[in-house]
Amino acid sequence: MLFSECQIDTATEVLKSISHPIRLKILCFLLEGEKNVGEIEQKFGSTISNISQHLTVLRKADIISRRKDANFMFYSLKDKNIIALMETMKKLFCQ
Amino acid sequence: MLFSECQIDTATEVLKSISHPIRLKILCFLLEGEKNVGEIEQKFGSTISNISQHLTVLRKADIISRRKDANFMFYSLKDKNIIALMETMKKLFCQ
DNA sequence: CTGATTTTTTATTTAAAAATTAAAAATAAT
DNA sequence: ATTATTTTTAATTTTTAAATAAAAAATCAG
User: Fold this and answer.
1) Residue-by-residue pLDDT tens, chain A, 95 positions
2) Chain A CB contacts of B16 below 8 Å
3) Residue A55 burial (C-beta neighbours within 10 Å; 0-12, 13-18, 19+)
4) For a surface tag, which of A7, A65, A80, B76 has the fewest beta carbons within 10 Å of its beta carbon?
């Protein structure tokens, strides 16, 4: 078999976290570099509370990290594995 | 922006479809070649009805296709994009 | 034709995810 | 200190997905 039970669980959690239109858009946006919550909200609409909750989902799945600056919170992609996955997605779904 | 609205929708649908432990395992299993519903059910447990429903989800997302032979239904991976995605997943999550 | 096998479909129940709204923290500005 | 800004958290409602069980199709074997 390709995956162990534990790898299946990890992969499922990551995939589930990025399987939402808003979260997928956020991840694409973060490919440009770190952004604060307001910038993300302005870019994609929805409410800032809703965006914040989606960011929490991504953060709990270890996909993004954040840095505080005054009362702004800057979010960015956490590791190069996620970037690699996004690049593959781009190649497969954006021709 | 990296994705258009429509590409986001397509990508989200595909990701959502594969973001389930049983469905992810089925896809791995199908990397070996086509299998019928009973073979999949035996491999991973659950009920045959449940497996059939998961296969329907994958089929509606255009990820797998099927071929009828008597009263057996053989399923297989539909395209190489999905295989490429699975290979990337393997590289990223199975080290 | 009858009964057995394989799979799908439908209906119901249960559980999880998403959106909305309101309230709460934390910091900054006056 | 008070007020405004930015973000998070919590509570509620709504929506969607999953599992289970039962019934229905389709084909095969006798």
Assistant:
1) 567 888 999 999 999 999 999 999 999 999 999 999 999 999 998 999 999 999 999 999 999 999 999 999 999 999 888 899 998 998 888 87
2) 16, 19-20
3) buried
4) A80
